[in-house]
Amino acid sequence: MSTFTADAFALLANGTSLPWAEIPEWPAAEFVRVTAGELERGGRLCAWFGVPEGAATRLVAVLAFDAGNTLAVGRSEPVTGSYPSLTALCPQAHLFEREVFEQHGLVPEGHPWLKPVRKGAGDAPANGEFFRVEGREVHEVAVGPVHAGIIEPGHFRFQCAGEEVLHLEIALGYQHRGIEAALAGGPHRRTMSQMEVVAGDSTIAHSTAYASICEGLSGVEVPLRTQWLRALALELERLANHTGDIGALAGDVAFLPTSSACGKIRGDFLNLTALLCGNRFGRGWVRPGGHPLDLDAARSATLLKRLHGALADVGQAADWFWEAASVRARFEGVGTVSARQAGELGLVGLAARACGLVRDVRFDHPAGWYRFAQAPVAVWPSGDVYARARVRWLEIQRSGQFLDEQLGLPPDDEPATALGGAQGDALCVSLVEGWRGEVCHVALTDGAGRFRRYKIVDPSFHNWMGLAMALRGQAVSDFPICNKSFNLSYCGFDL
Amino acid sequence: MLAFDTIAHRLKRGCETIAYPKGPAPALPDRHGGGLRVEAAKCADGCAACVPVCPTEAIARAAGGAVALDLGRCLFCGACVAACPSQAIVRTNDHRLAVRRREDLMLGAPGAEEARLAAALDEKLRKLFGRSLRLRQVSAGGCAACEADTNVLGTIGWDLSRFGIQFVASPRHADGLLVTGPVSRNMELALRKTWDAVSDPRIVIAVGACAISGGPFAGHPEVRDGAGAVLPVDLFIPGCPPHPLTILDGMLRLLGRLEHDRKPVTLAS
Prior knowledge:
heterodimer; A: alpha+beta; Beta Polymerase, domain 2; Cytochrome-c3 Hydrogenase, chain B; five-stranded mixed beta sheet; four-stranded antiparallel beta sheet; 18% strand; B: alpha/beta; Rossmann fold; five-stranded parallel beta sheet; three-stranded antiparallel beta sheet; 7 helices; 22% helix
């Protein structure tokens, strides 16, 4: 077997399912060792979660072998109490193991920082103790959960020596709405609506991942036109958010021309999504099995015309931005994450690509329309705020070109195939490259084809630690631009 | 060069702020549909086709009773409109949806076919806030969409500050809160503390289905089913998320700046 794929785990492709019984299993300690071995071979941890089995829990690992374009799954035998920590071998497992600890009470022995992830204690998250740096000159800065802008809540705890940040710990959970727990026994009547608001700025990414799960479990290939429409919507979502972020970054360094222009242009892109489906965030656009709303030729022409206008506007606003030495000076060398750190932490999406890693689900694990049409992967090597802004700008151009080309190539409409019943006792994995990065949904069905366990991994779950590392050795006053350069989701993390 | 370019560009584009409310309101996207109108009298006997298609159980019809739709739980997905065989539930294409009382979002009964649009604050509060309202926004389990479409009101296209409305960084500087999200239990304490830090007199605006009723999360043990469970709400703005125009309309209505604009829009045939 090539080194591009897993050695011991079962293989599957993005958007497909396999019987639960066919997934190889090991005793927990052995499973951790095998998983570490697979990660060592070039795998990446997409998801690590528990599945209750009686009073015990099975651990499940979903890995991506990006170079070999395959996904791989393995599981442990039921385990109770504790097991040897995977994090001790592979840092990218750190939050996953904390989550399993919180959800199932399994203790990963040897985990360096074991505490809850999002669970409530009374009427606030159970954040417990924060890591503290001791010393006469050291002081602590606590920010949040309520922040200064119109933005979601989270808590940031800095350990500083003067201006310099020695350590940042990020405590989340404030947005926890119980989405995963509510999925047990589903899909339910409101499941689709909940999927659209897992992270409200990534409605298309999450709802596409969910629709793919439903389709993968029932073995249905949706009409090409549905796949095409989903790709259009996903790229519009990327355009709107990247444009908003460029504007917000400009605002944070007081470069107002780009800031004010992008604030409006972001709305122009959102309005293109609304032209498709009525809702600026794409709600109602993606449904399992087909497309409830179509894009006829006249609407497509309107969309293309307005798209060109918005792209020209954002190009102009970006030109001012990149030409200004004052902007470049504030972004270069600030909040740097190395490619090695990004790899070890398992960063995904634009945060990883801004460290020079070629990591993009659309390219590595293409599903749906991306099997036929791709935008080049945009990479920038420097790992700093500049790189994260730069990758956004590159992707605005690539997504714009993609839409420009693809709008002219509508596949014929075919009748939607009715979704059959979902396969029972099967596991299905779906990855979608949302604008932040890899959205991962994993469903395990019971004998009747209902959800026995549904795991959602928003890209923010991988990337918050990247922000914490970016702040090390940085001035605390640079936190706003560092934070904005990642612009991670709180609710996508908190679920 | 840069300074010249940007200035020239700005001059060329001119003012990009919408003319509303002095001019006409911008049109909603044609597939948006605006609000809903429910005429329970039009329902066929025993028909409850709309009830099971609603993702948030916003529609109820008790045996022998009339259909009632709670616009505060509604995600405006349109499934009920599509399911209704007798056009008892239709889209209004009207962006105006904000109300002062929770019950004003219950639709269906004669005289209550549409949302009963918000009345202005009383004279004393209008005097205080009518030309200068400072709000602190608290997202309490919000998905970032209501937040984004509130935030957009500050951009050049909407220019909220021309009405004297501004979002501020501290509750100490605020005249009230604008709450989004179903109020996750994990945010309850932070929300209460933020509220406590706002001095009297103060107001609360609940934006979006989540903040009004819990929306798609209503009944989850992890949420409080909306801001009303924790704070006294003065203005409810429904939607998922409400269109920015709907949010702006609600705020202006509350401040008594749209008093002339109370009658329902005539339905397009």
